[in-house]
Specification:
alpha+beta; single chain; 6 strands; six-stranded mixed beta sheet; globular
Length: about 230
């Protein structure tokens, strides 16, 4: 009989112990859930702040599209043609700014309504980092622009572009048609590129009143605009 009572008491104690453990565990689970919810709220709040800061930075770095600033109708036509043909504004934080080295202009011998413009047409794409325009891509396109007057404005009829690689030198000689001075201007155009490039960037910054004081090519020193 005592043995049975002892067993019953032990069973009761075991049941009570189990109930206590379950209740204690439930209490801890509730605490953990509450703690987890609080943690999630804090992290979410921090993420929102980071996203807000990122959006502010992005807005500060959005760049307006480059537009021709001068009064030369032929250069305006070339600029509009070249930008439309070579670059599309898919990234709001970038801008394409041309730099043209124009060497000679003459009337086409086969069509008096067309002007042939010999030059090396460069285009650089920049993104704004701080107060600097960082060059992220660029390239040249030497050749002859055929520009004609269409009603009250000039438009590019077509572009005879020099091919790259092994064709480069031969194509330049072909379009120069024996004009050695013109050939030399084409082959050395990178030496005089800084002048039109810097000038166009300055005009762009002034036109839109941008907080930019320099531009930069990877591996080179910054070029200051002020």
């Amino acid at each position: 009989m005592n043995h049975i009572l002892r067993n019953s008491s032990m069973k009761i104690l075991l049941v009570l112990s189990f109930i206590f453990i379950v209740l204690a565990g439930c209490g801890k689970s509730e605490e953990n859930v509450s703690s987890t919810e609080e943690t999630v709220e804090v992290v979410t709040s921090e993420n929102d702040n980071n996203m807000a800061e990122t959006n502010i930075d992005d807005e500060c770095n959005i760049l307006p599209e480059y537009v021709y600033y001068g009064d030369d109708p032929i250069e305006k036509a070339i600029t509009e043609y070249y930008l439309a043909d070579n670059y599309h504004y898919e990234m709001k934080a970038s801008v394409a700014i041309p730099a043209f080295c124009i060497f000679m202009t003459e009337v086409d011998e086969n069509n008096a309504d067309i002007v042939k413009v010999y030059g090396n047409y460069w285009l650089f794409v920049y993104e704004k980092v701080g107060t600097t325009l960082e060059n992220i891509s660029g390239g040249e396109a030497p050749g002859v622009m055929y520009v004609k007057k269409n009603d009250d404005k000039y438009v590019v009829d077509h572009f005879e572009q020099v091919r790259d690689g092994s064709y480069y030198a031969d194509d330049i000689k072909a379009i120069c048609n024996g004009n050695k001075t013109l050939e030399e201007q084409f082959f050395s155009s990178s030496d005089v590129l800084t002048t039109p490039r810097t000038y166009n960037i300055k005009k762009y910054v002034e036109m839109f009143d941008l907080d930019i004081d320099s531009y930069h090519d990877y591996g080179w020193d910054k070029v200051m605009l002020r």
